[in-house]
Amino acid sequence: MAKRIRGVMFEENLKNSMGLEFYNLSHRFGYQSPNWPYFEDVKIERIHYMAKSGVLSQRITTSMHNTTHIDAPAHVIQGTPFIDEVPLPHFFGSGIVVSIPKDKWEPITGDDLEKACGKIVRPRDVVIVNTGWHKFYEDSEDYFCRAPGFVPSAGEWFVKKKVKVVGHDTQANDHPLATAIGPQRNGPLHPHLAEEYKEWSGGRDWKDDFPEWEPVHRILFKNGIMGIENVGGDIDKVTGKRVTFAYFPWNWDRGDGCIVRLVAILDPDGKYKIERGRKF
User: Fold this and answer.
1) Is 26 a residue whose pLDDT tops 70?
2) Which of 8, 41, 160, 214 is 20 to 30 Å from 58 at the Cα level?
């Protein structure tokens, strides 16, 4: 591989001179990035490249529900805002990253959230939940089909606490068996999991335990709370901390969601100031 060309000015421009610390909480996007079980695979084509054209241009075909992304309310609730209709302040703000370790298929409940952060969460916070499941992020049944997940009491807790945005290191805003992976809507996508669930649960039927389709999605979106799915990256480094988050989507007309670069920002010295907009 040819050595990349970097001069003094190039290196100088890449330095962070603001005194802020930035943490990437996003998984990588690209060729063969892990995908939800019934979505078309990501396609990336080099339509121009150096040997051919002296320039690199690429064409991408993808669902926006790949890698770390934010859902628009219109993704699930008809008549609610598309991604371009959500006000920009909704994609920036302070909040917390909370540790709630969970294993296969375990529910994340309102009681779990209350114990983990009920006394520290603030109205309009961004709340990111670290279950440890980001460590299993790959093209696998385990990540997409056997993850823990939010149940309705969690959605109701977020509404009660007036949270602005919810993020988590699992595959969906709902338990996977409350989606088409299980007995819901166009599912089951993985019917063999029915017997596995019955054995895991001590004989219960998944249709009884998950009678509603994506109930947490609907609780959140009806109340103006958006959800960031597949959080990862350096999430462990900021778990247990209050931080500032940025996660801006494309200005996509009638978009149902968008891949985002979720970033946690710390200001250790407390000296950085956002410009006041004075005329110069």
Assistant:
1) yes
2) 8
Query: Residue ranges of the domains in the chain?
Result: 16-27+63-266
CA distances from 194 to 55, 187, 207 (A): 51, 11, 9
Cβ burial, residue 270 (10 Å; 0-12/13-18/19+): exposed
Tokens describing residue 39? 């979505």
| Class of residue 144 by CB neighbours under 10 A (exposed 0-12, middle 13-18, buried 19+) | buried
H/E segment holding residue 152: helix 152-160
* CA separation for the pair 159, 243 (Å, rounded): 21
Q: Which of 173, 206, 208, 169 is nearest to 190 (CA)?
A: 206
Give, in order, the Cα–Cα distances in Å from 18 to each of 94, 243, 269, 272, 277.
Answer: 18, 16, 10, 7, 18
Domain 16-27+63-266 has CATH 3.20.20.70: no
The CA-atom distances, in angstroms, between 108 and each of 119, 197, 214, 216, 219 are: 18, 17, 14, 11, 15
Alpha carbons 81 and 256: distance in angstroms, whole number:
9
| Cα three-residue angle 57-26-166, rounded to 5 degrees | 130
3-state DSSP call for residue 179?
Answer: coil
201's CB contacts (< 8 A; 6+ apart) are: 105, 209
Look at 206 and 12; give whichever has higher pLDDT.
206
For residue 221, give the nearest of 179, 164, 279 by alpha carbon.
Answer: 164
Looking only at Cα atoms, what is the longest distance across the chain?
71
Query: In the numeric block, which tokens belong to residue 153?
Result: 């009491």
CA distance 150 to 106: 9
